[in-house]
Amino acid sequence: MATDIKESADAVEAAAVMKLLPGRPRLLALGEPTHGEDTLLDLRNDLFRQLVEQEDYRTIAIESDCMAGLVVDDYVTSGTGTLDEVMERGFSHGFGASEANRALVRWMRAYNDGRPASERLRFAGFDGPLEITGAASPRQALTALHVYLAARVDTDLLPCTAETLDRLLGADDRWTGPDAMMDPARSVGRSAAAKELRLLADDLVALLDAQTPHLITTTSRDDWDQARLYGRTATGLLRYHFWMADTAPSRISRLCALRDAMMADNLLAVAARGPALLHAHNSHLQREKSSMQTWEGPVEWWSAGALVSAHLGEEYAFLATALGTIRHQGVGTPPPDTVEGLLYALPEDSSLVDAPRLATALGDARPAPRVSPYFGYAPLDPAHLAGSDGIVFVKDVPQS
Asked: With contact defined as beta carbons under 8 Å apart, do 5 and 256 qualify?
């Protein structure tokens, strides 16, 4: 192969993964318990390479902005832009700075070079345009949907003009101010303009659906799929902004649930294209309810993985990743009575463990939950063992 992805020292064999599962899943989810560690991304890259070569997977989807991800997909499929531009504009959450993500994009572009469209690898971000500090303006998605429809359907079918959208959207910083996450009164999500935009977005999506036969035959299915992404993102963002303005005690739980619902919708769209490897935090991919501690107290919500699993059944598989040490983050050797401690005692540097079998073997002797001194790392919940199809264990994570 022209340009290979660096092989991880903590490799996971695709063939061994498939032996854990009843069949090849349409969506194979690989979680991680912390962000920002290239060792885990190198492992992901190597697994994706094997899945491409051995199992005919053609898409990788990661926990990054779905709109920005279009920039990466354009580059890997057709060479649009430069690698530096793509790493700067094609990722959210700071993920474009990762050398492992850069290696992935570079390898996918080299793999696709000279191949027919049907054989090319695809990239997708499946997160919404969201950060923990707030949400993007719906402008990009909403105007892109309007532009797509305006060029292809009769003008009198459109619910509004581009000028009306622009007037209602106003300045983008009205939407993106980080103060709104902490203070609902600072959100514009329940303003008269925002409420009108929600109705218009709904009408635009309904028009897109109603004109599907015409749109697919006059453009392409890929263009139509992208327009559907615009619609999902616009309606999802407007809904998210509406609930940012809520003052109920359940506000943060609802926002977490809305974010993962947007993720799930994007993942189901990815699944419709064919087999894909997913990569995100364990909490977004697990089948059980997710939880975390926030500035407003503990919150719970159903993750994207739980939602997708409910739709796809055995066509969804989840591998949780567990870690032994992250010494540069103050995470030392795990206590022996935790899941991580049991796995740390194994002789291998990394292991692929049959999670349901491990849960059965432990029986009533449930391991203790591990307590992390590092806020950015979430240890495995022992109660969730049986809910994953396997555990990828990385014994020691060196500093990237």
From this structure: no
| Cα(75)–Cα(69) distance, integer angstroms | 10
**Which residues are registered as beta bridge partners of 392?**
321, 352
How far apart are alpha carbons 6 and 11 in whole angstroms?
11
Place of tokens 């979680």: 31
Residue 320 backbone dihedrals phi, psi, to 5 degrees: -85, 145
**Alpha-carbon gap, residue 33 to 155, rounded angstroms:** 49
Which tokens go with 359? Answer: 């849960």
Q: CA 187, 188, 192: angle at the middle one, nearest 5?
A: 145
With tokens 């090849």, the residue in question is 24
How does DSSP assign 250-318, residue by residue? THHHHHHHHHHHHHHHHHHHHHHHS-EEEEEEHHHH-SSEEEEEETTEEEEEE-HHHHHHHHHGGGEEE
Q: Is the dihedral angle over the CA atoms 35, 37, 38, 39 positive or is it negative? A: negative
Bridge partners, residue 338, by sequence: 368
Tokens standing for residue 298:
């503990």
Amino acid making up residue 324: G
At 310-362, the pLDDT tens digits run 999 999 999 999 999 999 999 999 999 999 999 999 887 668 999 999 999 99
- Report the distance separating Cα 188 and Cα 174, nearest Å: 7
Strands 130-131 and 122-127: unpaired
Whose CA is closest to 67, among 144, 12, 13, 120? 144
Amino acid at 333: T
Is residue 294 classed as helix, strand or coil in its secondary structure? strand
- On whether the CB atoms of residues 343 and 349 are closer than 8 A, the answer is no
* pTM for the model: 0.95
Residue 29: strand pairing partners: 278, 318
User: What is the share, in percent, of the chain residues with pLDDT greater than 70?
Assistant: 97
Return the axis-axis angle of helices 251-273 and 304-312, rounded to nearest 10°: 40
Residue 288: what residue type? E
Q: DSSP secondary-structure letter at 377?
A: B
CA distances to 5, 8, 59, 103, 304 from 96, rounded to whole Å, are 16, 19, 18, 11, 23
Contact 67/233 with Cβ under 8 angstroms? yes
pLDDT given at position 6: 59
Q: Quick check: 32 and 281 in contact, CB under 8 A?
A: yes
Phi, psi of 280 (to 5 degrees): -165, 180
